Amino acid sequence: MFLTMTFQWFLVFSVSIAVAATDDDLIPSTLDGPFEPVTVPYDVSLRGNAVDLPDTDPRVRRCVEGFEPEQISVSLSVNYDSVWISWITGEFQIGNNIKPLNPNTVASVVRYGRSRVPLTDEASGYSLVYNQLYPFEGLQNYTSGIIHHVRLTGLKPSTLYYYRCGDPSISAMSDIYHFRTMPVSGPRSYPNRIAVVGDLGLTYNTTDTIHNLKSNKPDLVLLVGDVSYANLYRTNGTGSDCYDCSFPETPIHETYQPRWDYWGRFMQSLISRTPIMVIEGNHEIEEQAGKQSFVAYSSRFAFPSEESKSSSPFYYSFNAGGIHFIMLGAYVDYSKSAKQYKWLERDLANVDRSMTPWLVAAWHPPWYNTYTAHYKEAECMRLEMEELLYSYGVDIVFNGHVHAYERSNRVYNYTLDPCGPVHITVGDGGNREKMAIEHADEAANCPEPSSTHDEDMGGFCATNFTSGPAAGKFCWDQQPDYSAFRESSFGHGILEVKNETWALWTWYRNQDSSGKVGDQVYIVRQPELCLGSIKLPKSSLADS
User: What region holds the Purple acid phosphatase C-terminal domain (predicted)?
Assistant: First the structure.
């Protein structure tokens, strides 16, 4: 037994050394950390073209007829053997006299197989229509096209499948598309590249981000909230970089729902072939009549909620080879007594680290953020959930919300910790709101504590630091030691997991030529150091 275990650890160590030796020797790893904080100065010429694509742009125009499918996308279920295919048929309506389409009039069918011809398998699903309604004079209402979701099951791992979707009974089928399933879970089985992006919107900056992202040929796309930014518009189609600044007197925060349709059309060329997994951000709240919210988000995307036993589109989990992803909701109850927290406890307890060694979490607002924008805004969520995630050895956390890039050292409770996760903020996808450029640790930039409260996230928890160099202060006087690298530029990231202990993280800036990187580091797991004995928080599974 001892010889067997020694040989296994020797193999892991040998593979780790091989990864480090065969790649560029200049790429640092977290074993070299913690790193001295680095801030790349902001280049004022790089804000880019932060202007939304107009509805006349051919990339967002409807180019199908009748009930032919459009806005086609693929998303994952919990494991490699199942995916969701989603699409929309029929035209949306916006105005004062809308009449919702009947979803029962068009079937939800996917024909698929491992050869283009014939497509030997068939699956059926369900359809729905959603409305965005405003009970105020002068505001226009919206009703969507028919949204279809079909789950394919019994798929083989790492296999290319072809498919068509639509309703064959009325000759309304799509062209043939294809996707590749995820690898089987295992310690040496991973997707080649996973793209991570946040706060996309639909600007000319966004088009640069997606163009660059496509060139990296990802196997999976992770979108960490803030999708279409439809809520930067009034229902008459008038938009602004700052809704509250431009439209302070509106009786409700309006949205212009056609921006969702434009976004779906633009993204189809990518996400009809590459699975996308989305978690909600604050721009998806979109309150309407009856205090309903998140209706577009919940309707347009398929989530593995039931499969991961969460029964909620706001938090769920899935596997991609040897990675277990946990997607959490920052804008629904996350307290220790809430359903989300109880689900998270169960999900973490069921993770088999021998099959999915990597544990990656994602949600929208960052806990470790040194920009003035959204500084300590998610502190209540951190206080409720950080200990649980740390106890189970989460390796990486991805966030958006802050319109800039930042990578942390390994950190837990604001303290450098070799067993804490690396937190990465990628809220720099390209939306039309201003880029975050001010840092809370710079002179006169530290916000007033009361200004950091976000009512959509619950209570107010931001307080002064109680220990370390900033003890007794609300902000540091210099870039905090837990912040390893930060830069205000648009871009996206690529995660390449090499084996059960080494993963390469690369951040690409939109302004750079192909192949040039903005930030790059190997993230190295040390299970022998950090997972020797799990110490669970006082809130235990027995209480759930």
Answer: 473-520
Query: Cβ(62)–Cβ(265) under 8 Å?
Result: yes
Q: How far apart are CA 408 and CA 402, in angstroms?
A: 14
Q: What is the pTM of this model?
A: 0.94
Active site residue 374: yes
Q: How far is CA 381 from the centre of its chain?
A: 17
Q: Which amino acid is at 68?
A: E
The answer to whether the CB of 148 falls within 8 A of the CB of 86 is yes
Give, in words, the CATH class of 38-56+186-225+314-532: alpha beta
Mean pLDDT in the chain? Answer: 93
pLDDT in tens, 94-150: 999 999 999 999 999 999 999 999 999 999 999 999 999 999 999 999 999 999 999
Burial class (CB in 10 A: 0-12, 13-18, 19+), 317: buried
Return the exposure string of 111-128: e unless at least 16 CB atoms fall within 10 Å of the residue's CB, then b: bbeeeeeebebebebebe
* 283, 324, 374, 423: the active-site residue: 374
* Strand residue runs (E) in 294-447: 316-320, 323-327, 358-362, 396-399, 405-408, 411-412, 415-416, 422-426
